[in-house]
UniProtKB/TrEMBL annotation:
InterPro entries, A to Z: MmgE/PrpD_sf, MmgE/PrpD_sf_1, MmgE/PrpD_sf_2, MmgE_PrpD, MmgE_PrpD_C, MmgE_PrpD_N
Start and end residues of each MmgE/PrpD N-terminal domain: 14-252
Domain MmgE/PrpD C-terminal per the UniProt entry, residue ranges: 282-451
GO molecular function: lyase activity
Record family assignment: Belongs to the PrpD family.
Name of the protein this chain belongs to: 2-methylcitrate dehydratase PrpD
Origin superkingdom: Bacteria
Length: 469
């Protein structure tokens, strides 16, 4: 007679594996599937816009070398065919390259930029339907956002980027679902991913391009782990909660504040995808509230540079390392990526120009003497009343040369779950991004293709998103 008390409790990896293997796509609420299609639409528009920039062309040159001309997998918005892992890497770079892609606030993760390249590539390669692709994408989003939330913002504090790190586990489940792995194989694949997941925040010190590659690399890592698991390769069991599991090994002293229960809480009944925030501003989400606050002060008071003596920006303690330090490069960004993670530059731009958009990442804008001069007068302070990570709040306080103090607070950042961008807003953003590089007619075709993806197969979708000609 077997003693049931000796049976070990399921690990987090095993519970996520069971969810991935058994979730009925038809049981996912219609509103969740619809929102998922709009998140994908947003990502595709950003990918198309990214093809306009140097980083995309340099990345494509590199991954073409890796594929050695042997690949047949199309790339979003580009006339290129690559091997599967390389196409995933490239698509992730395009979606995340402008830092304009969606964010799950509690997980502090850009989950779509990893899950969509994985779903698109694996779905097409495995001959799955568009509906299957969408289901796998949703499953990855549900797992990735929860795993990110466990850390409660701790990964950033020790220099790990959750999108690359956690994204690899999410994409493992995406690919595993599309390749029909069993629950035991899916659990094993997550254990393998523990040795491939990565993502350093060191780019913050000099505006390096490495963050752009994190989600695509996560997708490639997920595919690798799934393929090894399919062939019987053995990975560790306690992937997340083990002595040297993900959280203990990557959070350091912040592991004390983690909540492992969040990794699987409400799976299949509460849909975290609905809490994913679509970005209205092409910059780190941590800067958005201050950007909007500064733009509001500009609209309300018509301030000029000469009227501003000093500026204080109140931000959550948890975001200081990302968007406020090192102070010297934040006040004088070295390149566009530096600028997207700079409270001084973004606040100064919004105060003087009334908004912050892609045009403010061009070389001429980065060299604007008025903006750079004002950025020197922008200081940050830790917001004692921050609701982080539920909201990425921000407050801007302007002291004028005639002694007035003007202040504006954005408690709930625009685009968040409690202040979301709706379908019409996302379509507008998509069209603006896509039309940077294609005609209005082609942009409309792409929109209809994505929103109608469940009537297609995954290969048709992947081919349809590629550049023509």
């Amino acid at each position: 007679m077997t003693d049931s008390s000796s049976t070990p409790s399921p690990t987090i990896a095993e519970r996520l594996a069971e969810f991935t293997a058994t979730q009925d796509g038809a049981a996912i609420p219609a509103q969740v599937r619809e929102r998922a299609r709009y998140l994908i639409l947003d990502a595709v528009g950003i990918a198309y816009a990214s093809t306009h920039y140097e980083f995309a062309q340099r990345a494509l040159s590199a991954v073409r070398d890796l594929s050695a001309g042997l690949g047949q997998v199309p790339v979003i918005g580009l006339p290129a065919r690559l091997q599967l892992r390389d196409a995933m890497l490239m698509n992730g770079i395009l979606i995340h390259g402008l830092d304009y892609d969606d964010t799950h606030s509690a997980g502090v993760i850009h989950a779509t930029s990893a899950c969509l390249p994985a779903a698109l590539g694996a779905g097409a390669q495995a001959g799955r339907s568009g509906a299957d692709l969408l289901t796998a994408y949703i499953i990855g989003m549900e797992a990735g956002t929860r795993l990110g939330a466990v850390a409660k913002g701790g990964f950033h504090q020790v220099g790990f980027h959750p999108t690359g790190l956690i994204g690899a586990f999410a994409t493992t489940l995406v690919c595993g679902r599309l390749y029909d792995l069993s629950a035991p194989q899916l659990a094993m694949a997550q254990g393998i991913t523990l040795s491939t997941a990565s993502g350093s925040m060191e780019f913050l010190n000099d505006g390096a391009w490495t963050k752009r590659m994190h989600p695509g690399w996560a997708a490639a890592a997920g595919l690798t782990s799934v393929t090894l698991a399919r062939h019987g390769f053995v990975g560790p069991r306690a992937t997340y909660e083990g002595r040297f599991g993900l959280f203990q090994s990557h959070l350091g002293r912040y592991a004390e504040g983690m909540d492992l229960a969040l990794a699987t809480a409400g799976l299949g009944t509460q849909w975290e995808l609905m809490n994913v925030a679509v970005k209205p501003i092409p910059a780190c989400h941590f800067t958005h509230a201050c950007a909007d606050a500064a733009a509001h002060l500009r609209a309300q008071h018509g301030l000029t540079a000469q009227q501003i003596r000093s500026v204080r920006a109140l931000v959550p303690q948890e975001v200081v390392k990302t968007v406020c330090e090192p102070v010297a490069t934040k006040k004088r960004p070295q390149n566009s990526y530096d600028a997207q993670f700079s409270i001084p530059y973004i606040v100064a731009t919004a105060l003087l120009r009334g908004s912050f958009g892609l045009e403010h990442l061009e070389d001429a804008a980065l060299a604007d003497p008025q903006v750079l001069d004002l950025a020197q007068r922008v200081e940050y302070e830790v917001d004692p009343n921050s609701p982080f990570p539920k909201y990425y709040s921000g407050e801007v306080i302007v002291t004028t040369t005639d002694g007035r103090e003007l202040r504006e607070r954005q408690e709930v950042n625009r685009g968040s779950a409690d202040r979301p961008l709706g379908a019409a807003d996302i379509e507008k953003k998509f069209m603006e991004n896509a039309r940077l590089v294609v005609s209005p007619q082609r942009a409309a075709q792409l929109r209809d293709l994505v929103l109608g993806m469940e009537a297609l197969d995954a290969r048709q979708l992947a081919e349809g998103l590629a550049a023509r000609g």
